[in-house]
Amino acid sequence: MADSADTRSDSLTSEGDLGATLTEEERLFVASQWSLMWLHFKRHKLALAGGIVIVVMYFMAIFHGFLAPYDKLTRTEFIFMRPQPLIFNDGEKFSLRPYTLGIEATMDSKTFTRSFTYDESVRYPVKFLNRGDEYSFLGLFKTDIHLFGVERPGTLFILGTDELGRDLFSRAIYGGAISLSIGLIGVISSFVLGALLGGISGFYGGVTDTIIQRTIEFIISIPTIPLWMALSAAVPASWNAMQVYFAITIILSLHGWCGLARIVRGKLLETSNEDFVMAAKLAGSSDWRIITRHLLPSFMSYLIVHMTLAIPNMILGETSLSFLGLGLRPPVVSWGVLLQQATNIRTVATYPWIMYPGLFVIFTVLSFNFMGDGLRDAADPYKV
User: Fold this and answer.
1) Which helix (H) or strand (E) holds 127?
2) Which backbone phi and psi does 149 adopt, to 5 degrees?
3) What is the sign of the dihedral through the CA atoms of 63, 245, 368 and 258?
4) d(Cα 57, Cα 40) in Å, to the nearest integer?
5) pTM of the prediction?
6) Which runs of consecutive H residues, i.e. helices, occur in the chain?
7) What is the DSSP-derived secondary structure letter of residue 128?
8) Could you report the per-residue pLDDT of 59-117, keeping only the tens digit for each?
């Protein structure tokens, strides 16, 4: 009896040693699908960089009040001031703590143009956890602590100011909270609608499939921008900012679910006759359970890729509508609202820094596309 126990112990020890000595190639054969997807995704350097940028963008959107040195509506006397330089050299050596110089604003009595001169004798060091404008931290409590800033009367305009002397960097961070959330909420809404209707269409077929597919074809045949413009124009001008926000989110979702519904339908037609589906039917599972617990999870990786590529389209849709004046309106701040001034070519030529918030849109959309490409390649981890 003791010999048998010793033999079993030696066998377990040898198996453990064997598992510890598995080569990397052998580990791939026993790895789960999600592990293989992560391995393929890590090899896509642009996708990994894009994912990091997106995480940073959403972190800035969540903690916008803390990260922005000013409130989005704070006005100053420095109207249309170009980006203020940060100086790291104190005249003798390099310093890790930058500072800004004092500013004097003057106006030409003949042309009524403003000019700004720097006073090198007045320096305002940039401080962390600086006190400034009061804001609501995550909607929980009021505070005036910001990540960085300068003591007043010093100024810190990293991207310059607009026509009312408001800091464009702070407004771009506040605008990201709106634009990024609209993209995320809009995609989630279209995902639920597309997965539900596409699942019903592919699972039941027949008349139900015909009605849903003809509806999708009709919606897709309508040009996107005119459709959005028509629906946005129907939003009452008397609605408050929150009502307009949800209206724009719904408008963007109404068109975004069609492509996903077609993908879900095609996948369901492909997998509806698989053995695991037949087993679920024989076990007495309802149609709803088969669709939601068996069919949809079987190709969830493809749905995640589609969502990742759809979010930048939602962001661009909101930016386009707000840019044309048909979406969100001031005092709401979004990236599209910030770019409304760019419709005047004379203003752009004179004050080109008002287009800097557009860089946030460009970096975000490119990052989502890079990450979507990486996820698309990783969605089929078993290919060579």
Assistant:
1) strand 127-137
2) 165, -175
3) positive
4) 24
5) 0.80
6) 2-20, 24-30, 33-43, 45-62, 64-67, 168-204, 206-221, 224-233, 241-271, 275-282, 287-289, 296-298, 300-323, 335-338, 345-350, 357-378
7) E
8) 999 999 999 999 999 998 888 899 998 888 876 777 788 889 888 887 776 766 778 88
